[in-house]
Amino acid sequence: MALSKAGPLLWSPANVSCRCLKGESSGGQILQTQGFRLLHRPWFHKTSINPQLPKRGSFLTTSALHTGENLVFSPPQRQWTRQTSLDGKDGYARGRAVQTRAAADDKVGLDDDEDEEYYNSGTLGGSCDPLCSVDETSSEDYQLGAKNAKSDIVKAVAIGAAVCVGAGAIQHSWVAEHQDLAMALVFIAGYAGIIFEEFFSFNKSGVGLVMAVSLWTIRSLASSDNAGIELRAQGEQVSEIVFFLLGAMTIVEIVDAHQGFKLVTDSINTSDSKVLLWVLATITFFLSSILDNLTTTIVMVSLLRKLVPDPEQRRFYGAVVVIAANAGGAWTPIGDVTTTMLWINGQITTFATMKDLFLPSFVSLALPLVLMTFSSDALQEKESRKSFIMSEEAMAPRGKLVFFVGLGALLFVPIFKSLTGLPPYLGMLLGLGVLWVLTDAIHLGEDDRQKLKVPQALSRIDTQGVLFFLGILLSISSLDAAGLLKELATFLDEHLPNVDVVATVIGLASSVIDNVPLVAATQGMYSMQQYPVDDRLWQLIAYCAGTGGSILVIGSAAGVAYMGMEKVDFFWYLKKISPFALAGYMAGIGVYLLQNQQGVDLPSIPAMLPLIPGLG
């Protein structure tokens, strides 16, 4: 491929074009631009070009640049420049595809202000692939960093001073003498930091870890003899949940890397808006019962971008996906992190949970769907015109095999637990190990498919989410060890009429507060002697904590992901969706109470499935 030294390429977002500016290139040689389209594929760590004239909007992959070379796009200068990596890492544009014009064209097209304004609007901005590790930089970026150096020093000194003050305060004798009050204050302060993380600009994972260590430090000062023993006992339970989540998330990432979920998403073939509503909700409901609700939401909202071009209608469908994902995750032990916590700790069993919670969970979705079908303005259009945007990647080789093996690995976990009596995380790790060996075998010698292997999947899992769970669970376990949760349980028993109301209130609270600490606190508040395995309290907690998060968009990880992907406003969701979600939530509770109080054996799909010997 010929190169040109005519000058750097100026990117004009409004024209979706690169124009060559004459003069000396400050960034090295530039690729010749006669009608070619450029696309950087971060997962292959290379930028590719195609010698043919492609159709507008298509994504192409051909030969790579020379070894160690790449194209870098600098937003402040709007230039593509050819650079050679010095540290083995690639500096590159973040997935943006641009069409180029002839190198002889020396016109700029748009003035700088108009160009910059259009670029900042994000109309053509691409999303960064999870493997992106190097930001686009320029001399202006470094100048800006130098200007902010003083403010950064001030921030660092302030944080260091806060740490020193906190460490000194914990050593004060008052803390040891008033352990309960000190731990309550630290927990409230930490939890406020988690709730208002956007306001304070602190990631909740970091806040959770600091809170956990602080609480256990206070506990050790007040009871140095017992704290170590208590921490080891609590750490064993917390570790089981963390290992389980890591295994499950890695399996899902491997399947997703092979585009295995296309088997599900490509099966949707309808243009009727009401039919599409029910089809999306049903697929999401059952998919979420196997995957976690966060992954299911991301997969389905990504699908909506290909099916529904209208933004308002797509926001509405996305909200339905959130309700369906949370409802679907509530009736299986592996569908939601809260039900997984209850299952691993022995409060619920597999078959009883599926049998008793399937119908309430389904009703919590079905009632909002019925109400939306006949009352929502977003569904007044009879036809939902399908978008012409096609999937960016086809299914990887052996993608179907990986999908079914991954699905089987997830479904095998409850069977492994019932057959061996060993903790569920071992079954999950076994499934991950089998899938790991399989992907290594089928991609043996395929150096260009490294992104399909497990090491790359491990780099894409939500590690900060796992660390957040770790911090929260350790924090709650410290309160449990100090006896604070027992005192809270006594207070609730004295002021609330029964456990049904307690579970309902916890579900409503989960629409505002993260459901993980709520469920963890409930596990410490009530003993297994008072409420044995599969008691109504535990099943209602599983249902309410899972489906209650749909009432507000910020009430669940699925809702937060949808909010970010579709730029949904909090008050739009509150006005358009919350009444439907609340109606479904209360209806599901009513169905569950009817099943149990009246002794009515209402039909449910899991109850009609063949019973696996020893399951549960």
UniProtKB/TrEMBL annotation:
CC per GO annotation: chloroplast envelope; membrane
Primary subcellular site in the record, as a coarse category: membrane
Compartments (UniProt record): Membrane
One of the GO biological process terms: sodium ion transport
An MF annotation (GO) of this entry: antiporter activity
Domain Citrate transporter-like: 193-544
Keyword line: Antiport, Ion transport, Membrane, Sodium, Sodium transport, Transmembrane, Transmembrane helix, Transport
TM region positions: 153-175, 181-200, 238-255, 275-304, 316-334, 357-380, 401-419, 425-445, 466-485, 505-528, 540-565, 577-594
Protein name (Swiss-Prot/TrEMBL): Na+/H+ antiporter
Organism: Klebsormidium nitens (Green alga)
